[in-house]
Amino acid sequence: MNKQHDIFISYATEDKEYATKLVTSLNHLGLATWFAPLNLEVGDNLAKSIDAVLTFCKFAVVIISPEYTTKNWTQYELNTLNSKMVENKTKLFPIWHGIDKKQIEVWNASIANIVALNSSMELSLISEKISGKISGNAPIRGVSPSYENPQWRFLWGHGELMVNSDNGPAFNIFEAAEFPDKDFPLYIYNHLYSKKEIVSKIVHIIFYHSYDEHKNRVSKEDWDKLFLLCKIYGFDVEDEKFDPAIECPLFLK
Q1: pLDDT, position 252
Q2: Rounded to the nearest 10 degrees, how much is the dihedral formed by the CA atoms of 224, 227, 232, 233?
Q3: Calpha distance 253→236 (Å, rounded)
Q4: Which domains does the chain have, with CATH numbers?
Q5: What predicted TM-score, i.e. pTM, was given to this entire model?
Q6: Please, is 52 exposed, middle or buried when counting C-beta atoms within 10 Å of its C-beta (0-12, 13-18, 19+)?
Q7: CA distance 113 to 7
Q8: How many CB atoms lie within 10 A of CB 149?
Q9: Closest CA to 112 of 120, 125, 101, 123
Protein backbone atom coordinates (compact mmCIF):
# COMPACT_ATOMS: atom_id res chain seq x y z
CA MET A 1 0.00 0.00 0.00
CA ASN A 2 3.05 2.29 0.02
CA LYS A 3 3.07 2.67 -3.74
CA GLN A 4 1.90 6.08 -4.83
CA HIS A 5 -1.06 6.26 -7.20
CA ASP A 6 -2.30 9.22 -9.22
CA ILE A 7 -5.96 8.24 -9.43
CA PHE A 8 -8.44 6.24 -7.37
CA ILE A 9 -11.17 4.51 -9.40
CA SER A 10 -14.59 4.31 -7.75
CA TYR A 11 -17.15 2.12 -9.55
CA ALA A 12 -19.93 -0.42 -9.09
CA THR A 13 -19.14 -4.09 -9.64
CA GLU A 14 -21.60 -4.19 -12.55
CA ASP A 15 -19.44 -1.60 -14.35
CA LYS A 16 -16.17 -3.50 -13.93
CA GLU A 17 -15.76 -4.12 -17.67
CA TYR A 18 -15.90 -0.41 -18.50
CA ALA A 19 -13.76 0.49 -15.48
CA THR A 20 -11.10 -2.02 -16.56
CA LYS A 21 -10.93 -0.51 -20.05
CA LEU A 22 -10.64 2.98 -18.55
CA VAL A 23 -7.82 1.88 -16.24
CA THR A 24 -5.94 0.36 -19.18
CA SER A 25 -6.33 3.59 -21.15
CA LEU A 26 -5.15 5.75 -18.23
CA ASN A 27 -2.17 3.48 -17.57
CA HIS A 28 -1.27 3.78 -21.25
CA LEU A 29 -0.85 7.53 -20.65
CA GLY A 30 1.48 6.93 -17.72
CA LEU A 31 -1.02 7.47 -14.89
CA ALA A 32 -0.83 5.15 -11.89
CA THR A 33 -4.36 4.04 -11.01
CA TRP A 34 -5.66 2.33 -7.89
CA PHE A 35 -8.21 -0.20 -9.09
CA ALA A 36 -9.44 -2.81 -6.61
CA PRO A 37 -9.19 -5.92 -8.85
CA LEU A 38 -5.54 -5.13 -9.66
CA ASN A 39 -4.33 -3.63 -6.41
CA LEU A 40 -5.97 -5.67 -3.68
CA GLU A 41 -4.11 -8.77 -2.54
CA VAL A 42 -5.31 -11.85 -0.70
CA GLY A 43 -5.96 -10.98 2.93
CA ASP A 44 -6.26 -7.23 2.40
CA ASN A 45 -8.98 -5.45 4.33
CA LEU A 46 -10.98 -3.60 1.68
CA ALA A 47 -12.07 -0.65 3.83
CA LYS A 48 -8.61 -0.14 5.33
CA SER A 49 -6.96 -0.49 1.92
CA ILE A 50 -9.23 2.12 0.38
CA ASP A 51 -8.83 4.51 3.32
CA ALA A 52 -5.06 4.15 3.06
CA VAL A 53 -4.85 4.80 -0.67
CA LEU A 54 -7.22 7.78 -0.44
CA THR A 55 -4.76 9.38 1.96
CA PHE A 56 -2.33 9.79 -0.92
CA CYS A 57 -4.46 9.95 -4.08
CA LYS A 58 -5.11 13.55 -5.13
CA PHE A 59 -7.52 12.58 -7.91
CA ALA A 60 -10.46 10.19 -8.17
CA VAL A 61 -12.54 9.01 -11.10
CA VAL A 62 -16.11 8.19 -10.09
CA ILE A 63 -17.99 6.08 -12.64
CA ILE A 64 -21.60 6.95 -11.83
CA SER A 65 -24.19 4.52 -13.17
CA PRO A 66 -27.69 3.53 -12.02
CA GLU A 67 -26.06 0.64 -10.15
CA TYR A 68 -23.53 2.95 -8.49
CA THR A 69 -26.29 5.07 -6.95
CA THR A 70 -27.94 2.11 -5.19
CA LYS A 71 -25.01 0.54 -3.34
CA ASN A 72 -23.94 1.15 0.24
CA TRP A 73 -20.30 0.47 -0.56
CA THR A 74 -20.04 2.99 -3.39
CA GLN A 75 -21.80 5.51 -1.15
CA TYR A 76 -19.10 4.90 1.47
CA GLU A 77 -16.38 5.57 -1.10
CA LEU A 78 -18.14 8.67 -2.37
CA ASN A 79 -18.67 10.06 1.14
CA THR A 80 -14.95 9.62 1.82
CA LEU A 81 -14.06 11.30 -1.46
CA ASN A 82 -16.51 14.14 -0.81
CA SER A 83 -14.95 14.91 2.57
CA LYS A 84 -11.49 14.98 1.00
CA MET A 85 -12.78 17.20 -1.79
CA VAL A 86 -14.18 19.67 0.76
CA GLU A 87 -10.72 19.73 2.38
CA ASN A 88 -9.19 20.41 -1.07
CA LYS A 89 -7.20 17.18 -0.81
CA THR A 90 -8.87 15.35 -3.70
CA LYS A 91 -10.29 16.40 -7.06
CA LEU A 92 -13.16 14.36 -8.51
CA PHE A 93 -13.67 13.44 -12.16
CA PRO A 94 -17.24 12.08 -12.49
CA ILE A 95 -18.05 9.95 -15.52
CA TRP A 96 -21.75 9.47 -16.24
CA HIS A 97 -22.25 5.90 -17.36
CA GLY A 98 -25.75 5.12 -18.62
CA ILE A 99 -27.28 7.83 -16.46
CA ASP A 100 -28.36 11.44 -17.02
CA LYS A 101 -28.08 14.64 -15.01
CA LYS A 102 -31.70 14.60 -13.80
CA GLN A 103 -31.21 11.15 -12.29
CA ILE A 104 -27.99 12.28 -10.62
CA GLU A 105 -29.64 15.45 -9.26
CA VAL A 106 -32.28 13.32 -7.53
CA TRP A 107 -29.58 11.07 -6.09
CA ASN A 108 -26.86 13.60 -5.18
CA ALA A 109 -27.26 17.27 -6.09
CA SER A 110 -23.70 18.25 -5.15
CA ILE A 111 -22.20 15.65 -7.50
CA ALA A 112 -24.56 16.75 -10.27
CA ASN A 113 -22.99 20.23 -10.07
CA ILE A 114 -19.50 18.95 -10.90
CA VAL A 115 -18.64 19.14 -14.60
CA ALA A 116 -18.61 15.53 -15.77
CA LEU A 117 -17.49 13.38 -18.68
CA ASN A 118 -19.81 10.86 -20.32
CA SER A 119 -18.94 7.26 -21.10
CA SER A 120 -20.49 7.73 -24.55
CA MET A 121 -17.32 9.67 -25.43
CA GLU A 122 -14.32 7.87 -26.91
CA LEU A 123 -12.34 6.25 -24.10
CA SER A 124 -9.07 7.71 -25.39
CA LEU A 125 -10.56 11.22 -25.28
CA ILE A 126 -11.78 10.73 -21.72
CA SER A 127 -8.31 9.54 -20.67
CA GLU A 128 -6.60 12.46 -22.42
CA LYS A 129 -8.89 14.97 -20.68
CA ILE A 130 -8.22 13.44 -17.27
CA SER A 131 -4.48 13.23 -17.94
CA GLY A 132 -4.44 16.84 -19.10
CA LYS A 133 -6.13 18.05 -15.91
CA ILE A 134 -3.75 16.10 -13.69
CA SER A 135 -0.63 17.32 -15.51
CA GLY A 136 -1.84 20.91 -15.74
CA ASN A 137 -1.95 20.47 -19.54
CA ALA A 138 1.84 20.30 -19.64
CA PRO A 139 2.94 20.09 -23.31
CA ILE A 140 5.01 16.95 -22.63
CA ARG A 141 4.35 14.24 -20.04
CA GLY A 142 7.21 11.81 -19.50
CA VAL A 143 5.79 8.29 -19.48
CA SER A 144 7.82 5.23 -18.50
CA PRO A 145 7.80 2.44 -21.09
CA SER A 146 6.87 -0.97 -19.71
CA TYR A 147 10.49 -2.10 -19.42
CA GLU A 148 11.58 1.00 -17.45
CA ASN A 149 10.66 2.23 -14.04
CA PRO A 150 12.12 4.64 -12.02
CA GLN A 151 12.49 8.30 -12.13
CA TRP A 152 16.01 7.81 -10.76
CA ARG A 153 17.22 6.12 -13.94
CA PHE A 154 15.90 8.91 -16.14
CA LEU A 155 17.16 11.75 -13.96
CA TRP A 156 20.65 10.23 -13.78
CA GLY A 157 20.83 9.66 -17.53
CA HIS A 158 20.40 5.88 -17.52
CA GLY A 159 16.81 5.56 -18.74
CA GLU A 160 14.24 6.85 -21.16
CA LEU A 161 10.71 8.18 -20.98
CA MET A 162 8.12 8.31 -23.74
CA VAL A 163 6.31 11.42 -24.98
CA ASN A 164 2.69 11.48 -23.75
CA SER A 165 1.97 7.72 -24.00
CA ASP A 166 3.80 4.43 -23.53
CA ASN A 167 4.20 4.05 -27.30
CA GLY A 168 5.25 7.66 -27.94
CA PRO A 169 8.75 8.65 -29.11
CA ALA A 170 11.46 7.98 -26.53
CA PHE A 171 13.68 10.66 -25.02
CA ASN A 172 16.42 10.77 -22.41
CA ILE A 173 17.40 13.59 -20.09
CA PHE A 174 20.17 14.77 -22.42
CA GLU A 175 17.63 15.26 -25.19
CA ALA A 176 15.13 16.81 -22.78
CA ALA A 177 17.68 19.46 -21.81
CA GLU A 178 17.69 20.65 -25.42
CA PHE A 179 13.92 20.69 -25.91
CA PRO A 180 12.66 24.14 -27.00
CA ASP A 181 11.23 26.39 -24.30
CA LYS A 182 7.68 25.81 -25.58
CA ASP A 183 7.89 22.17 -24.43
CA PHE A 184 8.31 23.12 -20.79
CA PRO A 185 7.39 22.42 -18.11
CA LEU A 186 7.80 18.65 -18.42
CA TYR A 187 5.43 16.57 -16.30
CA ILE A 188 7.43 13.64 -14.90
CA TYR A 189 6.44 11.46 -11.95
CA ASN A 190 4.02 13.90 -10.32
CA HIS A 191 6.35 16.88 -10.68
CA LEU A 192 6.50 19.71 -13.20
CA TYR A 193 10.12 20.37 -14.23
CA SER A 194 11.25 23.69 -15.65
CA LYS A 195 14.07 23.71 -18.18
CA LYS A 196 16.43 25.03 -15.51
CA GLU A 197 15.58 22.10 -13.25
CA ILE A 198 16.31 19.63 -16.06
CA VAL A 199 19.61 21.41 -16.75
CA SER A 200 20.43 21.19 -13.04
CA LYS A 201 20.10 17.41 -13.33
CA ILE A 202 22.55 17.49 -16.23
CA VAL A 203 24.95 19.45 -14.02
CA HIS A 204 25.02 16.63 -11.48
CA ILE A 205 25.49 14.00 -14.17
CA ILE A 206 28.43 15.89 -15.70
CA PHE A 207 29.97 16.68 -12.32
CA TYR A 208 29.74 13.22 -10.79
CA HIS A 209 30.05 11.02 -13.87
CA SER A 210 32.18 10.73 -16.99
CA TYR A 211 31.28 10.82 -20.66
CA ASP A 212 32.23 7.14 -20.99
CA GLU A 213 29.34 6.18 -18.69
CA HIS A 214 26.82 7.81 -21.05
CA LYS A 215 28.40 7.57 -24.50
CA ASN A 216 25.74 5.08 -25.62
CA ARG A 217 23.08 7.78 -25.07
CA VAL A 218 24.79 11.02 -26.05
CA SER A 219 27.47 11.85 -28.62
CA LYS A 220 30.75 13.49 -27.56
CA GLU A 221 29.74 16.58 -29.53
CA ASP A 222 26.41 16.81 -27.70
CA TRP A 223 28.12 16.11 -24.37
CA ASP A 224 30.35 19.13 -24.95
CA LYS A 225 27.29 21.21 -25.89
CA LEU A 226 25.76 20.35 -22.53
CA PHE A 227 28.66 22.10 -20.78
CA LEU A 228 27.76 25.28 -22.65
CA LEU A 229 24.06 24.84 -21.83
CA CYS A 230 24.94 24.52 -18.15
CA LYS A 231 26.94 27.76 -18.32
CA ILE A 232 24.04 29.56 -20.01
CA TYR A 233 21.88 28.64 -17.01
CA GLY A 234 24.53 29.83 -14.54
CA PHE A 235 26.19 26.51 -13.73
CA ASP A 236 29.91 26.65 -14.62
CA VAL A 237 30.80 23.01 -14.02
CA GLU A 238 34.35 23.61 -15.28
CA ASP A 239 35.08 26.08 -12.49
CA GLU A 240 37.20 24.24 -9.92
CA LYS A 241 35.26 25.97 -7.11
CA PHE A 242 31.88 24.84 -8.45
CA ASP A 243 29.87 22.73 -5.99
CA PRO A 244 26.57 21.33 -7.34
CA ALA A 245 25.29 20.64 -3.83
CA ILE A 246 25.31 24.41 -3.27
CA GLU A 247 24.70 25.72 -6.79
CA CYS A 248 21.87 23.32 -7.74
CA PRO A 249 19.39 23.16 -4.83
CA LEU A 250 16.62 22.48 -7.38
CA PHE A 251 18.04 18.99 -7.77
CA LEU A 252 16.88 18.10 -4.29
CA LYS A 253 13.18 18.58 -5.13
Answers
A1: 40
A2: 140
A3: 21
A4: 7-134 (3.40.50.10140), 140-252 (no CATH)
A5: 0.68
A6: middle
A7: 21
A8: 11
A9: 101
